[in-house]
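User: As part of a screening pipeline, I want to sanity-check one entry by hand. Below is the sequence and the SMILES for nicotinamide-adenine-dinucleotide. Please return the complex as structure tokens so I can compare it with the automated output.
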Amino acid sequence: MTDAENSRIGILGCGLMGRGIAEVAATSGFGVTVREVSSEALETGLAALRASMDRSVKRGKLEPEAAEAAFARIGGTTDLADLKGCDLVIEAIVENLDAKVSAFVALDGLLDRSAILATNTSSLTVTQLAAATARPDRFIGMHFFNPVPAMKLVEIVGTLMVSDETMTRARTFAEAIGKEPIVCRDNSGFIVNRLLVPYLLDCVRAHENGVGSLEDIDAGMRLGCGHPMGPFALLDFIGLDTILSIGHIMFEEYRETRFAPPPLLKQMVQAGRLGRKSGQGFYNYG
Ligand SMILES: NC(=O)c1ccc[n+]([C@@H]2O[C@H](COP(=O)([O-])OP(=O)(O)OC[C@H]3O[C@@H](n4cnc5c(N)ncnc54)[C@H](O)[C@@H]3O)[C@@H](O)[C@H]2O)c1
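Assistant: Here is the complex for your manual check:
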């Protein structure tokens, strides 16, 4: 799986995260098959992936020939069966337990016994997904960060059931695609979201309570704490629907109010203001 030329990586979902993972795997020399639910979603995802590679070429980070070769290594499909033969499949679909379980059950029945299944979930426990398959020793959490091409970190999440060999193979793959893995024990939110999500939800509560405008809270955290991005810009970047699902799942797990999604966040999602991906979130993206 570390030998790029002889390994094939499957990616489930060509949304924000799936296409980012596909891009870094392909630019690192791996053959990639990306599966989406519809040809429209696949086309949109692959067009965004291509645009991201073109931006890297414009910025001088990627040679035009390398971008062409990487794009040619990516195959898109709507048929799950096309993932057969992959050595590792990374799931990056909606943050919903039922959707992920049914996807993993189907993949488990399809892939070779030696293949590894990985989830990019932000807040579900890896254990409950692994337990739904007949290969919990070859099931792992690989949590990437957005935007995947730019963010170095991958959280490698082990369960009580995972084998040492799977942990090593996942770590080595992360390094082979230029990422810096950290290891953490399975718990909702892993390391980063367990600390980040309550902070983001608290910022929404502060704004809801009239503490400050969006712009002032964002400027406060950028200029006062040295954060590269204010919380509302970050919320819009992540996607408000994704953060809402994460908050619900983490609250369900810990029963601590700091994980409870505030009413304003729910209303934003009900209003279809999902952040950058829908053109409007806390800010307007024209
Ligand atoms: N957005 C982030 O910043 C971020 C960061 C780290 C992890 N994550 C996690 O990554 C996962 C994906 O998040 P996202 O932001 O890319 O979401 P997204 O909404 O941008 O993309 C999800 C994609 O999955 C597709 N999909 C749904 N069911 C599918 C199936 N059965 N097979 C194939 N494709 C399917 C959808 O059509 C959609 O295109 C979630 O679990 C999320 O929690 C998100």
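Points to compare against the pipeline: Residues 12-18, 35-37, 41, 92-95, 99, 103, 120-122, 144-146, 238-239, 242 surround nicotinamide-adenine-dinucleotide (CB under 6 Å). The longest helix spans residues 39-58.
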